[in-house]
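Why does residue order matter? Because the sequence determines the fold. Keep that principle in mind as you read this record.
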Amino acid sequence: MKILLVSNMYPSEAFPSYGVFVQNTEAILKDEGFSIDRAVLTKKTGKAQKALGYAQHYANVVRKGMSGKYDAIYVHYAAHNALPLLVLKKLKPSVRIVTNVHGSDVVPEVASQEKFQPNVKKLLGQSTMIITPSHYYEKLVKEKYQVRTPIRIFPSGGVNAAVFYPNKENNAELMATYKLDPNFRYFGYVGRMDVGKGWDHLLNGFAAFLNEHPEEKAKTRLIMVGSGKDDAAFFELRKRLGLEESVVHFPLMKHADLAAIYNIIDLFIFPTTRKGESLGLVGLEAMACGTPILASRIGGILDYTKENENGWLFEPGNPQDLARGLAAYNKLSKEQKQQVGQAAYQTAQQYEQKTIQSKLSAIFHELRLKK
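Structure:
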């Protein structure tokens, strides 16, 4: 079976983590014996480069779709790829499209994303199959678009166990690598400094936790990994809250470095406020390293986080509730924390790439039977 993979997000040497889960799904399909061709766009910077990049990408999608003999076109991100695919579908009605929807595809985060919604609805209606990362997101798609297209669930490429695994016995060595003081214990965050990611609620919640438990200032620090449009606001808020020494910042990291951070930290904090948080792969990556999570009670996170079993939940956008979660975690015994960490690890194994790859394969084999 020959598949054309279409995405406006795909890793490059300069941006190795950009759309890496798209690359993961490609690897899974190849491993399952499918033949894969690509029409993808790597990250561009600057308005002119982005405009040119998208123009070339759209032309490439239509050109390959018209000339190539593909059994299916597999698209990630409906919002930014709908236009060329709708053109292609009009020119070549026989083409079969499998649309994998994510995040802002269905729940726009800023006003400028609303303009894509009519095309998203059209594309989903004209797709042969829709893939969503979670049961939560499946429900959103059904409610919003009232589509009759069959929907299948596949968790965004899954977790790569060759990269994300427990390695806490080497924490001293890992801390030295990242120049972290071993006299502190660390909480952690991984994500863009951008709208809806909750980095500001985390800073406010962590500040409240330290203010309510001043003894923690001498033994607890927060690692925040990521960059984005709100970098300047992040640094300003960190300074205003007096957290410059307590909050350690790293820019974007490769997956191997993220795995090290997940192992160094005692608790991963996932403060997203996005209703379009279709799965939350970073939470599962942390859990795969045996690290429990304290996460917003929202989105696809609820598919895998069980309160007081493999993690804890707090009200989205509520720094005080986040602070209460940190205080509650602090009261647990070492054995209780280890027990939750082990449960987190066991949960993440259900999303490991080798475990789930047959699910993606089955979706495309089902498509073959629909001929």
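The longest helix spans residues 47-67.
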